[in-house]
Amino acid sequence: MDNINYDCRLNFPATIRNRESIASVLSNYISPNSLLLEIASGSGEHGVFFQKKFPSITWQTSDPELVHRKSINSWIKHEGLYSKMPEPIDLDVEMRPWPITKSIKSLINGIVCINMIHISPWSCTRSLFEQSRKYLDQSNFLMLYGPFLRKERQTSESNLNFDQSLKIQNPLWGLRNLNNVNDIAIENGFKLDHVIDMPANNLSVIYSIK
After folding, report:
1. 58 within a domain of the structure (yes/no)
2. Cα–Cα distance between 19 and 27 in angstroms, integer?
3. Cα Rg for the chain, rounded, in angstroms?
4. Of the candidates 134, 111, 133, which has an alpha carbon nearest to the alpha carbon of residue 187?
5. How crowded is residue 98: how many other Cβ atoms within 10 Å of its Cβ?
6. Over residues 140-158, mean pLDDT
């Protein structure tokens, strides 16, 4: 790993709040001695937590932002995981093809995307499914986590307010309707396996290859 002479760790408060509940879901899907690819890893706090929680796997982070990759590397060093956990990949979900090596592809058991699709354009969601399809088979999974709109359920006031605040920041952002996300999944050869209610009006959504 590159030498890091200063602490670049970022702290995202939501990570502390949701990491245990996400880990509980992941524990039902991971396979020992496999690799999980995280898309849009942000600060890296999730990555190092899950690597320590599941020591039998390799957690591969990725992020297009240099400041985030520096934070991830700093967290890896801080947690003493540099001999186990690889450096983050410079991966922009919309840049095709993804820079995934053959060795990484051969180990991938699942792809995890936490809190990305509501703070990115809809085109990123499309690309996430299009590209993930190339690296997964029927024994693997794709997991999305975050807030969603659901046609069959009333949206909580907190999520409605959050949706409005996101659209003020960027009109291309906002909570996605789960039915629309499912349509994109089906178009790319996925099927919806499970929708799991999570704390704070979030969902974990699990897809697999048809």
Report:
1. yes
2. 12
3. 16
4. 133
5. 20
6. 93
Confidence check: pLDDT of 40 > 80:
yes
CATH code of residue 34: 3.40.50.150
Residue whose tokens read 């088979």:
137
Number of domains in the chain: 1
Q: Is 152 within a domain?
A: yes
pLDDT at 94 over 70: yes
CA-to-CA distance for 99 and 97, rounded, in angstroms?
6
Residue 119 domain-assigned? Answer: yes
175: in domain? yes
CB contact at 8 A, 193 and 206: yes
User: Is 178 within 8 Å of 152 (Cβ atoms)?
Assistant: no
Quote the pTM value. 0.94
pLDDT band at 156 (very low <50, low <70, confident <90, very high): very high
Q: Report how far residue 88's alpha carbon sits from residue 199's, in angstroms, rounded to the nearest whole number.
A: 28
Q: Provide the token pair at 33.
A: 């001695």
Distance between CA 150 and CA 196 in Å, rounded? 13
Containing structural domain, residue 90? 13-209
Rounded distance, CA 118 to CA 147, Å?
Answer: 8
